[in-house]
Amino acid sequence: SASFNLYVITGICMVALEAGELRKIEGTAVYALTASHSLMAYGWLAIVVTVISPDVVEWWEALITFLAMPWLVTWVYCADKNWFRPEAQVYPADPDPAAP
Question: Would you say the pTM of this structure is higher than 0.70?
């Protein structure tokens, strides 16, 4: 489901550009974290359902799976705020001297 949504969003973004218009993606940290966590989630699910407890999800497996979401949201928030790369911080231009 999430993979399909990503494909649809990417397709819409590509179609929305005018013919000949180019855009460059500069910050991919959030995308990379989301993509890597998605792969880990699929791997975790496969291991849980086939290896650890075949065809049954134990309570502790469900708890680990449930706690993965706040973990992902925290990492993605930190990446969005550039906390991992302080040199990449974007600062506003000089403030307007006429502003109060």
Answer: no
